[in-house]
Amino acid sequence: MRENKKSKFSISRGTVAKILLVMYDAFVVNISYFFALWFRYDCNFNELINGSSSVTDAPDHFNAWLMFIPINTIFCLIVFKVFKLYHSVWTFASYREFFNVLYSSAITALIHTVAITLIFKRMPVTYYFSGALIQFILILAVRFSYRFILLERSRRNVANSKKASRVMLVGAGAAGRMILHDMNLATESKDKVVCLIDDNPHKIGKYIDGLAISGNRYDIPAMVQKLNIDKIYITIPTIKPVDKREILDICKETDCELKILPDIYELQDSNVGKNTLVDVDIEDLLGRDPIVVDMDEIFTFLQDKTILVTGGGGSIGSELCRQIADHNPRKLIIFDIYENNAYDIEQELRENHPELDLEVLIGSVRDSRKIFDLFAKYKPEVVYHAAAHKHVPLMEHSPQEAIKNNALGTYKTAYAAALNGCERFVLISTDKAVNPTNIMGASKRLCEMIIQSFDKLIKEDKLDIMRPLYEHDDSLVEDRFIHSGSNVKTEFVAVRFGNVLGSNGSVVPVFKKQIAKGGPVKVTHPDIIRYFMTIPEAVSLVLQAGTYAAGGEIFVLDMGAPVKIDTLARNLIRLSGFKPDVDIKIEYTGLRPGEKLFEERLMETEGLRTTPNKLISICNPTDFEADKLFKNIEELMHICYEKPETVKAYVESIVPTYHPAGEHGTEEKPKAYEEQLAAMATK
Fold this sequence. Notes:
The chain is elongated, with a radius of gyration of 36 Å. The relative contact order is 0.07. It has 3 domains: 13-153, no CATH class; 164-280, NAD(P)-binding Rossmann-like Domain (Rossmann fold, 3-Layer(aba) Sandwich); 295-501 and 532-559 and 601-663, 3-Layer(aba) Sandwich (Rossmann fold). The chain is built from 23 helices and 22 strands.
C-alpha cells in the first residue's frame, strides 16, 4: 500500500526534465538581453548600473530591462509552449525542431522589441539584435546538446567495439541520409558507416555528416577492399529493377552481407531507418521490370461473381484468394483438404476483408459426392483449380496418388463445374507437363488433355460422352450425375507456368534453411536450370489469362530467361554474407527420381498465339480423341486401385509425350536445353 501511494505522488523523469527546461528558458530569455546590454557598454558592469559622464542613459536602460523581466518571461514561455518546445523528443531532434526554435525566438524577439520600447524605454539597436541572437543560440544549444552527446557517445562505443561491423551505404539521397542519421544515433548499434556511394557525379567528393561520398556503383569492390567493409546497405527506395540487379551483381561479388531498402510504395509515412532495411530476396536478382497486369479487366471479370478456389490454402491457391478478395467477388469459396492452411488464409482474409462473403470448406477433389454437393449448393461461376500434388520425387514413389489427386480430381471437378452452370474453369498447370519425364508432370499433362476434351465436347454438343467418375459402385452418384445439355456452357482453359519463388517446396526456402545451419547447400546437379517467377506475379497473370479465355486454350506465361540453380544457390550464399565453397559448401546430390535438367514451355507440336498482354501467350492445342481419352481415364482409375504398380506404364500409353526418366532422372541435353543456355547468356 505504501508503495502504491508513493508511486501515485511521484514525479516522472520526463516531468522533471520539462520543469528544468522551463526554468532554464525563463533564465535564458532574460540573461540574453542583459548580456546584449552589457556588451553595449563594453562589459563595464559599474558603468551599466551607475552610468558615467559620457553615458548617462545606462542606468535607465538597465532599469528598463530589469522591470521588463516578468512580462518578458511570461510571453516567452507562452510562445515556447505554443511551438511545442516542451513536448519534443530531443533525442531525435531534427530540422523541424530547429525551425520551431527559430520561429519562436523570432516571435519573442519581436514582442520584446515592441513591448519594452512602448512600455518602458527605447533601447540601443544592438540590444535588440544581440539579445535575440544570444537567446536563439542558448535556447537551441540546450535542446540539441543531448542529441550531440548521444551521437558522440554512440560513435565512441562503435569505435571502441572490436566487433563493430563496417558498413557501406549505397545511395546518398534522402533515405540514405535518414538511415545514416539513425545509425549514428543508435547507442547500441554495432554497425559503423564508413563509406557512402552514389551514382550522382555532383555528389561524389562531398560530405554528409562528415562522411565522404567515395564514388559510384563501379567503385564498390575497390572501396570494400580498401576500407574492409563487412556489410553493404542499399538505400535507394526508388531504384529501377535493372539498376537494382546491376548493383546487386556488383555487391554479391564482394562477400559482404547485403540489405536493401524496400520499394518506396512499401514504406509508410516516410518512416525510414535502419530497421526498415530488409534482407535481399533472390527475386531482386531477376533484373526485370515488375509484371504489369490490367487490373480493370480482372475487376470487371470477377466482380459480383461466386468464385471457387480449389487448393485454396496452398502457395498459389492462397495468393489467388488474396487477389480475388481485392476485386469484390459476390462470394469466395476456399476448398482444401489441409485444414491448417485453409484456416490460416481464412483468418487472414477475414481480418483484411471483413466485408467479404467467405466460405471455407474442407474436402478432397477426389471425393465425387463432396465436390458435386459443393457445386450443386453454391453454383460457383468461376473456378480456379489449384488443388494438386506437385512434389516430383514423392510422386515418383506414389504414382497412383498423383493420378488420383491430379488427373482424376481434375476430371471430377471439371465435370461437376460443367453440370452446374459454371461459366469458366481455369486449371493451374505447370511447365513440367511439357514432354514430362516424371509422373507428376504426366498427371498434369493429363489434366490439360481433360479440360481441353471437356471444352471440345461442349462446343461440339457431344455431351453424352461426358460421364461421371467414381471409384466405388454407387447408384446415388450415378443418378446425380445425369446432366441436361441446356445448362452446360463452361469454358475450360489451362494456365501453364514454371517454378514460383517462395512457394511450398521451392528451392529458395530450402537453400535459406541450409545456409542458416551453416551448410552444406545441396544442389541436385551443377547444370540444372529452371524458370522462375514470384507468386504474386504468377497469380496476377493467371487471373488475367482467365479474362482472355474463350475455351480450350492453354495459356503459357512468359517466365523470362531461365536461371541456373547452381548460380542461384551461390548468389543466395553471397547475399547472406558468406563465400560459396569457403564458408558454405555446395554439395551436388544428383538428379532426383523423374527430374530432368531443364523445363520446357511448349511441345514441338504446339505453337504460340499472342494476347493483349505480351507476357501471356496461347499455345495451339494438339488433336486427340476425347471419347477415347475418357475411356482411358476411367480405366486408369481402376488401375490406380487394383494394379498401382502398372500406373506409369499405362499413363505412358495414353500420354504420348511422357517418357519416364528412371530412378536418377535424365541428363539428356537436347536442342531446347542449349536454347535456354543461350537465353541465360543474353540476359
